Structure formats: C-alpha cells, structure tokens
Input
Amino acid sequence: MFDQKIEEEKIELANQVAHDIRSPLAALEAIDLNQLPDINNRRLAKDSLKRLKGIAEVLLEKGRAENNEVLPEVNLNSLINNVIESKKIEFKNRKIETKITSQEGLANIHEIKLESILSNLLTNAFEASDMNSSIIVESEICNKNYIIRISDHGKGISAELLAKLGKEKVSFDKTNGNGLGVYYALQIINSWGGALEIKSQVNVGTTIKISLPITVNQHSQSSLSILIDNDELVCLTWEMKAKKAGIDLKIFRSSVELFSNVGLLPIDACFYIDSELDNEKGENIAQKLFSMGFLNLNMCTGYSKDKFAHLPFIKKVINKSPPF
Output
C-alpha cells in the first residue's frame, strides 16, 4: 500500500512537471529560429528545443500507458518543411527537391516521433546516394490520407533485405545501424492508423511512402477560436501563431472575464481551456459552458486524457502548443 502511494505520487509529479514545462516550450517554438544569423547556433537551438520537448514527453508518458497517449492535431505541411530545413543545414552541400501539397494536412500523431522517422529516412537517403544526386520529398492528400514520399537514386535495397524490413528489427543502414529502423517506424505509424511502404531496386533507388489519416480542421467549422489561460507565455505564443495562420482568436485570462462576455460569443466557437486557472479547474469552466449550449470544448493541458475521461462533454485533450 505504501509502495503504491509512492508510485502514485511519482506519476503525479511527472505529470505536473510535464504540464509546467510545456508553457515555456510552446513560447520557444513560436520563435522563428531560422532567423538566427549563425547556422551552428540555429541548429544548436533547434536541437536543444527538441531535446526539451523529448524530456517533457518522457515525463508525461510515465503517467500514462502508450496506447492511451494523447495525440494532438499536427500540421503535417509545417512538420515536413521543418524537417527539410533542418536537413538542408545538416547536408548543406546536397540537393533536396520538394513538391509539398498546398492543401493543409492535419493528423493526430506524435510530432516528435514523426519528425524522428522522417529525419532518419532522409539521412538514410542521403547516405545511400552519391553527392551529385537529389533527394525528392513529395506530399499529397488522397482519399482522406496524407501521403509522404521520399525518393532517392541511390544504391537501393536488395530483395532479401526488403523482405525483412518491417518484420525484423533491422535498420536501413546495416553498416552502422543508425536510424529508427523500419520495424520501429512501421509500428509507430501503424499505431496512428497509417501505413508505410517501401519500393526499391538495387542500383536504381528507393521510394518510401507514408500514409496518415487526416482529421477535419476544427477552424474550418468555427468562426472563432477561444483560449482560456492565464499563462502570459502561452497567451503570447497563441497570439503569434493565430496571427500567422490567419485564425480569429480571442483570449480570456480568467473565468470572470470569460463569463462577463459569454453572451457575445458564437455558439460554434472552439474553446481551448487550461486545466489549471489559479484555484479554478478548467473542467468546471467547460462544464458550465456545456450547460449553456457550447459543444466545441477542448482541454489545453500537459495532462493525459485519462484525467478527463469521465467528462463526456470534453471533445479533445491537446497539449499547450497552438493547434493551428
């Protein structure tokens, strides 16, 4: 009984730290690190930010089972472009051709994991190709799926190895074993309801196709997004992201301010509510809004969705990063 109590306290502490660290992380993410003049500093800043995000994710996962993980809505176009820009710095003397769809693609995925998968696939493509050949990255939306293709004109993969990929724990680069390996990438992508396919010919090249089911963009359904949060870093981050994305955003920093103006808000407004507003619980605010007829209610927090599983009126649980 005593040991169980200790474990519960550890889980609660991990959740709290993960929740608290996401506010400054979200603010840092809003800064365009590509504006840093020095390439090395730019890359160091990006890598450090990614490590911090990873620490937050690990802490949060200590308090939840993997299959119950909260998967936020991620803009795949932005994610792919960010990975490509990072690789252009890493492989500055190499060529990357891009044909990214102009259609917005949103999917419920683990952002850091997909970034790692794409980063490793691009690294493998560069290492498999000679210095003068190009790597091609394409994306399109087809039948409610977001398709990503990475193609190279490198040494290719033998039929023997190709038959093992995804079935055994082998990596693309057998000489040094770097990268996630197709086995792990396939497991992760499958857990999101997606698929990974590989076509390759020795001395011709390799094409990797990733398919991910897209979600409906909430902002196309609602004329107004509303953030209820008293963290100034979070508010500033959301304001910057909303302005850049052309989203009509209104911010309330307390329930008193919110309910003083609630009569002016459209019934289809999309609410994002922090779970902790001083001494007030965000879920209590959501319940009151629900009783007033508002249905698009989402918790914006670092906590797991399990914490809100008993509240059927909560539509989604997302992290502190703006969903647009």
Residues 172-180 have pLDDT under 50 and may be disordered. Residues 218-318 form a domain with the Rossmann fold fold (CATH 3.40.50.2300).
